[in-house]
Design brief:
Structural class: alpha+beta
Number of strands: 5
Keywords: Molybdenum cofactor biosynthesis, Nucleotide-binding
CATH architecture: Roll
Helix content: 10-25%
Shape: globular
Strand order of the largest sheet: 2-1-5-3-4
CATH superfamily: Beta-grasp domain
Radius of gyration: 12 Å
Distance between the termini: 38 Å
Order of helices and strands: EHEHEEE
Number of helices: 2
Subunit structure: Heterotetramer of 2 MoaD subunits and 2 MoaE subunits. Forms a stable heterotetrameric complex of 2 MoaD and 2 MoeB during adenylation of MoaD by MoeB. During catalysis MoaD shuttles between the two heterotetrameric complexes.
CATH class: Alpha Beta
Function: Involved in sulfur transfer in the conversion of molybdopterin precursor Z to molybdopterin.
Protein name: Molybdopterin synthase sulfur carrier subunit
CATH topology: Ubiquitin-like (UB roll)
Family: Belongs to the MoaD family.
Largest sheet: 5 strands, mixed
Length: 77
Amino acid sequence: MINVLLFAQLKDELGKETLSIEGNGMSVAQLKGKMKIEFQLEGLETVMTAVNEEFADDETILSDGDTVAFIPPVSGG
C-alpha cells in the first residue's frame, strides 16, 4: 500500500488528509490518474510531489510502504 498525504484544496475536496492506495510499481503519474478517476480530485496536474520526503517527478516508481505527498501551489499576500 502507498500512503498518500493531501494538502490544501485537495484535502478539502476529499474531506480527509490521508489515504492508503494499492499502487506498488505505479509511477507517480499513474497514481495521479487513478486518484483523479476514483476520487474525482481536480488539480493533481499542478501539484508538487514528494515521495518519502524528497521531491519527485511523475516518472518516479512507487513501492509498497512509500509515502507520497501532493502539495498544491500556494500564494501569499
